[in-house]
Amino acid sequence: MSTLLAAAGSLEPAARSYLSPTGQEIVFLLVGVLVLGAAVVSVTTRQLVHAALWLVVALGGLAVEFLLLTAEFVAWVQVLVYLGSVVVLVLFGLMLTRAPIGRSPEADSGNRPAALAVGAASAATLVTLVVDAFRSSWIDLSGAAGTTRLTGEYLFSHWVLPFEALSVLLLAALVGAIVLSRSKDGGTDARPRAGKLRTGRPSAAPTKPKER
Amino acid sequence: MHLAYPAVLAVLLFSVGVYGVLARRNVILVLMSVELMLNAVNLNLVAFDVWLRDALHAGQALTLFTITIAAAEIGLGLAIVLLVYRTRRTAAVDEVTALGDRHEAADDHAKEQAAA
Prior knowledge:
The complex is a heterodimer. Chain A has helices at 2-8, 23-44, 48-68, 72-96, 112-134, 148-155, 160-181, 186-204, 207-211. Chain A is mainly α. Among the domains of chain A are: 21-105, Up-down Bundle (Four Helix Bundle (Hemerythrin (Met), subunit A)), CATH 1.20.120; 147-185. In chain A, α2 packs antiparallel against α3 (48-68) and α3 runs antiparallel to α4. Chain A is globular. The chains are: A mainly alpha, B mainly alpha. Chains A and B meet through α2, α3, α4, α5 and α6 of A and α1, α2 and α3 of B. Chain A: The chain crosses the membrane at residues 26-44, 51-69, 75-96, 116-139, 159-181. Chain A: Keywords: Cell membrane, Membrane, NAD, Quinone, Transmembrane, Transmembrane helix. Chain A: It is found in: Cell membrane.
């Protein structure tokens, strides 16, 4: 099984040792430890806003990992979409639901031990599986595979239909979000404001002839 | 680079996300954990794309699509959260139980009382 999987990628057998890592691997490991630590703090901290800010660290570290894997464009999209909009949305959500600043003792529900058990079990199972399957696989990082030019070429030559379908999906989702979050008394709120603008104009108009 | 490094990192991130989804009580923190899980999948897709080097670059294209879907999901999710907060004055997952099975809950309650 593992030999078959290895043959699909690089054909070189396990000539590389884990004990003599390359520079890229060292950087990847260091950033990976940072990402994992930030993720763990983000799901365990009791301060809700701090959780969102640690999520920024984790997602930014993942963008660096994408850069190390030569996926340049994906890394910048990650920075723009996740760090730029998703985290801001999350912070606005925390603000609008009046999340308490500081420690909130109710951040975790009662089934925390069960969650810990499930998380540990899935981590142990998947790590065992992945290490056993891909122990001898080697990624050849020479040659850029994810520059913006290349990404544009394959995205708009092979993936046009899914791309357009996804843009329609995103539009539908955002229109749905607007419809859902529009408050019912928002319509009556908007009317006096428009009237105020209309009453403001005539009062400003008579001053003009006086100045002339 | 060994393929095992990104694969193991993605697996660990996914498990952290699973823990967060199950353990958190605030809906927005649950959504953040879902984002962590989606990002673990993204890392896997990018790593396997660089490893396999197929002509279509399916891994990176799917990563971009996943990021789009994640953005749509968080926008819609936060809209629903705000709607629930406006009607129920709560953002806790375990207090939104309007669709729960009342008979079962009543049975559990009776059992607990019988045990106590």
